[in-house]
Amino acid sequence: RVKEYIAEIQDSQVSSKEQLEAFRMRFISKKGILTELFDDLKSAAPEQRKSLGQELNTLKNLAQSKFKEFNETIQNQSEQQAAGTLDLTLPVIPHEQGSLHPLSIVKRRIIEIFERMGFNVSYGPEIEKDWYNFSALNFADNHPAREMQDTFFITKSPEETKEDVLLRTHTSNVQVRLMERQKPPIRSIMPGRVFRNEAISARAHCVFHQVEGLYIDKSVSFKDLKDTLYHFAKEMFGKDTKIRLRPSYFPFTEPSAEIDVSCFICGGSGCNICKHTGWVEIGGSGMVDPNVLENCGIDSNEYTGFAFGMGVERITMLRYGINDLRLFTENDIRFIRQFQGA
Ligand code: PHE
User: Fold this and answer.
1) Where is the Aminoacyl-transfer RNA synthetases class-II family profile domain (predicted)?
2) Collapsing DSSP states into helix, strand and coil, what is residue 292?
């Protein structure tokens, strides 16, 4: 009987899934011939058992390898059928490669430079209370910067300015939040989006980006501020870059200074990026006003510090010679693409 089955298997052919399944049922499945024959083996005469067992194993191996072979053939067949319905001449759907926005590239670079100097990175809210955006930063109640023309207010309290909720006008709010919750030494930079009620033009926008910096410790000096800014400028724009600090005023720093860097595009000889002055302003800075330290619970007799706030758009425009702020938000793919791999 076993010999007959062997012959049957060797002669069999399958050409469909159904025939393959029938083959499996007949020989391999639990209710199939192999199971039955192995059951019979138990009742065979002892002297026959060995040779019969060997024959059964041959049959089993043959059935299994045939099944494998049939299975592969059937699968190849159905793949070929599927390929027959594919139109291989159809053009592919183009796979566009994205790239980082120039503002993201520059923000990352700024973070990298300051991280190497030992600064960490902090973030704060864009919707802010008056206290964090203005009052704690030593803005007097009637300071013009609080006026409606600069600030987008969300809720305005009739009695107390300090209760107003607004869109932050600068990243200096994060300074206050940091100083309130952390004891010095503090050495942090704070990137983020800021909002001002301004008409959109080539040089102004109602939404832009800043990176704030804050360093508070015992005996931090103006020289530390200058060294830090100078090092940053050289890392960002190249080793021949110069900086210039111009006296200025901010309610939260004293003394205060505007930060200028020598023009990256013309090297100082004059071009339309620096408006032929050789210098481009990239932000404001100064020594943290003792009133601000005290407002945030830091002893101004023990600690001093410096702060700065830089415009990410300004730095990006200077770095890449971009002369219109609106390009950053129009999302023209021809503009964005130029920064691939930058
Ligand atoms: N917050 C200021 C601005 O937006 C910049 C600044 C930050 C100045 C920190 C001094 C210190 O113009």
Assistant:
1) 106-330
2) helix
Chain centroid to CA 219: how far? 36
Residue with the nearest Cα to atom 9 of ligand 1? Answer: 308
Closest alpha carbon to 53 in 7, 4, 2, 6: 2
pLDDT at 149: 65
Q: Is the ipTM of this complex over 0.90?
A: yes
Interatomic CA distance for residues 82 and 80, integer angstroms: 5
Q: CA-to-CA distance for 174 and 191, rounded, in angstroms? A: 9
Q: What is the CA radius of gyration of the chain?
A: 38
Name the percent of the chain lying above pLDDT 70. 99
Three-state SS string over 52-121 comes to HHHHHHHHHHHHHHHHHHHHHHHHHHHHHHHHHCCCCCCCCCCCCCCCCCHHHHHHHHHHHHHHHCCCEE
Pocket test for ligand 1, best of 250, 252, 253, 288 (most atoms within 8 A of CB): 250
- Residue numbers in the known binding site for Mg(2+) are 254
User: What confidence tens digit (pLDDT) does each residue in 33-70 have?
Assistant: 999 999 988 888 888 888 888 999 999 999 999 999 99
Is 253:307 a contact under the CB 8 Å cutoff? yes
